[in-house]
Amino acid sequence: MKKVILILFVIMSCVLPAFAVDSKPQALTRGEVVKYLSTSDMVKKKIGELVSWTVGYDVSKVNRAKLTPIISFVKIVPGRVSPDGRTIVEITAAVDDPGGLENIAGVRADLSSIGRLPNTILVDSGMFGDKKAGDGLFTLQTTIPTDVSFGLKELPVAAANKKGWLALSKTTLDVENPTGR
After folding, report:
1. Disulfide engineering: 165 pairs with which of 2, 68, 95, 143, CB 3.0-4.6 Å?
2. Which pLDDT score is estimated for 142?
3. Residue 14 and residue 20: Cα distance in Å, rounded?
C-alpha cells in the first residue's frame, strides 16, 4: 500500500504542473485527476506490476498457516467401550490459533455415529470434564447408548476461529460387544 501511495505521489508531482497554463496552478477535481492518471501508460504499467486485474483475489496466495486454527491432536478415553449407557467417554482436542486462544470461536464434534448430537460443543472452561480453563484442551464427556451398533465409529472434530477459518480432525471409537460375541 505504501508503494502505491508513493507512486501516486511521484506521478501527481510530475503530472499536475502540466495542467498549469499560467504561473498559478489550476485546481483539478478528483474525477479529472483519476481520468488523467488512468489514461497514462506509465501508470497503467506500474499498477499492472502491483495488482493483477485478471486474476483478482487468489486464495492460493494467502498464507493459511497464519490464519487457520490448529488441532494438534484428538484423543478419546477409553478408546474401546461397550454400549451400556453408563461408561463415560471423554473426547479431548488440543486446539490453538495463530491469533491466540481467545480467537477460537468454538470446537465441535459430530457424535451422530454413536447416537448423540451431530454438533456437540467441546469446552475449555474447567467444567464438564475439562480439567483446566484456558489451556487449549477442549473436552467433552458422553456415554454410548445401548442401541448403538458394534464396530469402529468415526468422530469428526472441527475448530473454528473468529475469522471464519476452520480446522478439521477426527478420532475413532471402538464400540465393542461386552459378551465378546
Report:
1. 68
2. 92
3. 12
- Helix/strand number for the chain, H first, E second: 3, 8
Here the cell at position 14 is 510530475
Statement: the pTM of the whole predicted model exceeds 0.90:
no
**Whats the size of the chain, residue-wise?**
181
Rounded (to 5) percent helix, strand, coil in the chain: 30, 30, 40
Examine the pLDDT at 122 and tell me if it is beyond 90. yes
**What distance in Å separates the CA atoms of residue 123 and residue 111, rounded to the nearest whole number?**
15
Whether the predicted pLDDT of 41 surpasses 80:
no
Domain ranges of the chain: 2-61, 64-175
**Cα 130 to the center of its chain, rounded Å:** 24
Q: Are strands 104-109 and 120-122 parallel, antiparallel or unpaired?
A: antiparallel
List of residues 6+ apart from 148 with CB closer than 8 A: 83, 114, 115, 175
Q: How far apart are CA 17 and CA 23, in angstroms?
A: 10
